[in-house]
């Protein structure tokens, strides 16, 4: 299949092998503008590896990753970030000793380094941006709180906010609700729906209750390939999906 310029992300014939083992095997994936895509599949299916390859952490053995029709495979991770690919890892990387405000402030593209932030002049533009993002992630009332004092869920939302400060067009999250309470999961579902109103979001998730809450289109991976793709109903009723994943 040839690349399609209408997609935010077009992954084609993507393969990575580790000592001959193909963790991603000739995979094609297309993500639309403002789409919230959920990727599910058994352990070892290659979900995390796929996100690692899109963000540039893992190099492809072969194949293509196009972001806005621009080939990404040869670009380093930081260049992909600059171009608008944001990735949230499972372990939070917030600065515990800085306030919520400061964490967001240092994530603004111009003042990204922590050292730089000490001397960083807080312009009105940055302040407005911090305020808007803090409201979006539900932390507007905790701007002066030290990040280390936040609840687990709040820390995760702060990290999402730090990524949003860079205004990514594609945001990828790996198991965003791990360790969260029921209430925090509900808030996270709403947050993900909200942020996908004006950007594309890819979420890897194992918790099917959560997937049902947020899913538009679901991609099921198995052995480095796509096993099925479609609505929640489609994939839930797919016998192959039940066999390799949902039936367990
Ligand atoms: N750097 C690497 N070197 C060798 N093998 C790797 C490497 N990274 C991943 N793998 C292997 O590739 C396969 C896919 O792993 P991956 O973590 O992407 O799966 P996953 O679908 O995210 O699983 P989980 O749901 O458990 O997180 C696994 O068999 C894993 O051991």
From TrEMBL:
Keyword Hydrolase applies: no
Domain of life: Bacteria
Alphabetical list of CDD domains matching this protein: ABC_Mj1267_LivG_branched (cd03219)
Entry GO MF terms: ATP binding; ATP hydrolysis activity
A Gene Ontology term for the protein's cellular component: plasma membrane
Keyword hit for Nucleotide-binding: yes
Keywords: ATP-binding, Nucleotide-binding, Transport
Pfam families to which the protein is assigned, alphabetical: ABC_tran, BCA_ABC_TP_C
Domain ABC transporter intervals: 9-248
PANTHER family found in the cross-reference section: CONSERVED COMPONENT OF ABC TRANSPORTER FOR NATURAL AMINO ACIDS-RELATED, HIGH-AFFINITY BRANCHED-CHAIN AMINO ACID TRANSPORT ATP-BINDING PROTEIN
Protein name: Urea transport system ATP-binding protein
Source organism: Jezberella montanilacus
């Amino acid at each position: 299949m040839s690349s399609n310029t209408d997609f935010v992300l077009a992954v084609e014939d993507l393969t990575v092998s580790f000592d001959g083992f193909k963790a991603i095997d000739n995979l094609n994936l297309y993500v639309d503008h403002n789409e919230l895509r959920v990727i599910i599949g058994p352990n070892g299916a290659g979900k995390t590896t796929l996100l690692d390859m899109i963000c540039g952490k893992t190099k492809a053995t072969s194949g293509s990753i196009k972001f806005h029709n621009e080939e990404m495979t040869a670009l380093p991770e930081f260049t992909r970030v600059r171009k608008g690919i944001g990735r949230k890892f499972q372990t939070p990387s917030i600065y515990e000793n800085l306030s919520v405000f400061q964490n967001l402030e240092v994530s603004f593209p111009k003042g990204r380094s922590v050292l730089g932030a000490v001397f960083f002049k807080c312009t009105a533009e940055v302040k407005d941006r911090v305020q808007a993002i803090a409201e979006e992630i539900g932390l507007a009332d905790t701007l002066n709180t030290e990040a280390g004092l936040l609840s687990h869920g709040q820390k995760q939302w702060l990290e999402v906010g730090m990524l949003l400060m860079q205004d990514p067009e594609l945001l990828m999250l790996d198991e965003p609700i791990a360790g969260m309470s029921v209430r925090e999961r509900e808030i996270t579902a709403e947050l993900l729906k909200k942020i996908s109103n004006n950007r594309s979001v890819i979420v890897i998730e194992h918790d099917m209750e959560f997937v049902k809450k947020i899913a538009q289109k679901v991609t099921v991976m198995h052995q480095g390939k796509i096993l099925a793709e479609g609505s929640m109903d489609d994939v839930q009723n797919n016998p192959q999906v039940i066999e390799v994943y949902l039936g367990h």
